[in-house]
Automatic annotation (TrEMBL):
Superkingdom classification of source: Bacteria
Gene Ontology biological process terms in this record: DNA-templated transcription initiation
Keyword line: Sigma factor, Transcription, Transcription regulation
InterPro entries listed in its UniProt record: RNA_pol_sigma-70-like (IPR039425), RNA_pol_sigma-70_dom (IPR014284), RNA_pol_sigma70_bacteroid (IPR014327), RNA_pol_sigma70_r2 (IPR007627), RNA_pol_sigma70_r4_t2 (IPR013249), RNA_pol_sigma_r2 (IPR013325), RNA_pol_sigma_r3/r4-like (IPR013324), WH-like_DNA-bd_sf (IPR036388)
Occurrences of domain RNA polymerase sigma factor 70 region 4 type (ranges): 132-182
One Gene Ontology term of the molecular function aspect: DNA binding
Gene3D superfamilies, alphabetized: 1.10.1740.10, Winged helix-like DNA-binding domain superfamily/Winged helix DNA-binding domain
Protein's UniProt name: RNA polymerase sigma-70 factor (ECF subfamily)
Amino acid sequence: MEKAQLSLADFRFLQFKEGDRRAFEYYFKEYYNSIVGFGIQFIRDKDKAGSIAQDAFIKLWENREKVQKINGIRSFLYTSVKTDCLNLIRHNKVVRKYESKLLHERESSLHTEILNSLNFDSVTFSELESLIEKSIEELPDKCKLVFVKKRFENKKNKEIADELGITLKAVEANITRATKFLKLRLSHYVLHIFIYCFLQF
């Protein structure tokens, strides 16, 4: 078919395939915003979606001779954006997993370095755990029960009061009493306790 007999749309498409940059610019303006919006649906990042959209147009230009129909332009762009967005999502998942692993390894290494630098060993912490348990056992029964529910079962004061049938003030008083007693008994292990608690998180 002669160019003179082509519709404007067909003529523009033919010009595009032959390397006419004005025809390419037309398609860029026609589809850019829509494919950026399409990309945002996948990655929720306008800047990255814009970058992926630009890459899609570069690929379109480089492969223009392979596009057989006008509708193929739109299909090419959307397919390219979808593929790149999914690849980015998969890549980010791998990166996050790797970073999480490195962070965990670094934390473990840091814990070891702290212990080594302070000359703490497993015996020290074993003794500390034993002393804490023994000190809690020495609390009066009601005081111990309130303290355990508060510190180890993570219950609120109101819940403890309801369970034990006592007032909120009684709960608070028992917690204060237990805390003061344990601070006194463990006063020589303040630094050890700090490190011990730090390593639990």
